[in-house]
Amino acid sequence: MKQFPKGFLIGGATADFQYEGGYDEGGRGLSTHDYETDGNQVNPRHHTLKMPDGSIITPASSFFFADPVPAEADPVFLDDAYYPSHKAVDFYHHYKEDIALMAGMGFTAYRFSICWSRIYPTGDEDTPNEAGLKFYDDVITELEKYDIEPVVTICHDELPMALALKYDGFSSRHVIDCYVKYAKTLFERFGSRVKYWLTFNEINAVKGFGPCGVRDSGNQSHYQAVHHMFVASAKAVILGHEMMPGSMFGTMYASSEIYPATCKPEDIFHRLQHRRETLYFIDVMARGYYHNYARDLWNRRGITEIKMEEGDEDILLKGQLDYVAFSYYRSNTCKAGDEMKTIGGSPNPYLENTPWGWPVDPLGLRFLMNEFYDRYQKPLFIVENGMGAIDEADENGYVEDDYRIKYLNDHLAAMCDAINIDGVECLGYTMWGPLDLVSLSTGEMAKRYGFVYIDMDDKGNGTLKRTPKKSYYWMKDVITSNGGILEDF
Ligand code: BGP
What we know:
The protein is α/β, with parallel strands linked by helices. It has helices at about 15-20, 85, 90-105, 115-120, 130-145, 160-165, 175-190, 210, 220-245, 265-285, 295-300, 310-320, 360-375, 400-420, 470-480; strands spanning about 10-15, 50, 55, 75, 110-115, 150-155, 195-200, 250, 250-260, 325-335, 380-385, 425-430, 450-455, 465-470.
């Protein structure tokens, strides 16, 4: 029988710009994702930017594969474009109802991100925006009502647009100071009520103008900006430990690549190097130093130098993470000659795909949990997992989502096996998008993850009515039985 360990945190996860809305309320400043329009499976999301000659350009901002943004281009809102982050699904005004729905399933944890530009509208102010802090105060108060543990992401792939425009985002060391000031404000305000923190989201996948505010998405600029994010994170961890004894810090790592396509030695070796392309990020943060293979990786990527200041190495070492948080949606397969990228690679003939082409692989989750625990010997936290699917709601908004129940059953069962059989230490599991929200990679509503259906379409039309799906009642039973009703897959 499957069983969650004692004190296991189980619940859901969201990100502010995909869920919250209220982009111009409560003194919030503009954020880098606010200038991204919707996309779909065929066309990625894109920024809308104006060149000095008045022409409009629309570089793709599809997270993993961001297009570069010319230095002279200015963000602009177009009348005929739809910007999903502005309204998202309006958690800003529905947070009480939404948290009550989460509590109805018996959630013991909710991971959410704080919008940096709600707290520091331009990132450079000396004092924070009280209305922004108050909103998250209210959210935490609501969670406390139901004994739901808040798990807070300090920065989920975005920053105040002003920091991107003025300093080229994390290219500049000044933005490290802005980040630490922002983190300190959160620790002062919420430190007595929040124990679990995540300094960044999907650190190995952040790239370009949206996620780290950097216009040039080439390797040299990207890896330099990421070094600054490593230092910013480590400084926040050091400060957080000082200010909030007992607090625990992670950074989220997007895991997916696992398998070599064949047992051909070249494929196996390619797989090793491919793994290191992404483990590079969490290795530095969880172990506190750049490791032996970093030099080879920089060389292969044409990176001549990562500029470091005196003291950086010491900060990285002292600011190591307490736990390893990761997202898991799918596995990836690669063979020699495949391009090194976070998702994609070669097809896996043994697995079926979601409508978005993501291979479904629950055993891969157990594999990864073991791999990470062997590698870091630190507790794990699965902070995102779920299935983006096309839901057909009936006239009442009800969805019979047996496919989602199957996906989640199998992944939760695999997780329990890693914990119960393999002895992996895992703090919790937060399913991605417990209420439907806007997709990160495509900016659409059609790709739904939730236990709760939200009546809204790709262009923001709909009543925003929330209706529990079949999976809602199933998840409630999973939690009530402490995992006991999960079936082997
Ligand atoms: C992760 C992000 C989330 C989320 C999720 C699902 O990369 O941390 O923000 O959206 O992926 O991806 P998508 O929304 O593209 O289906």
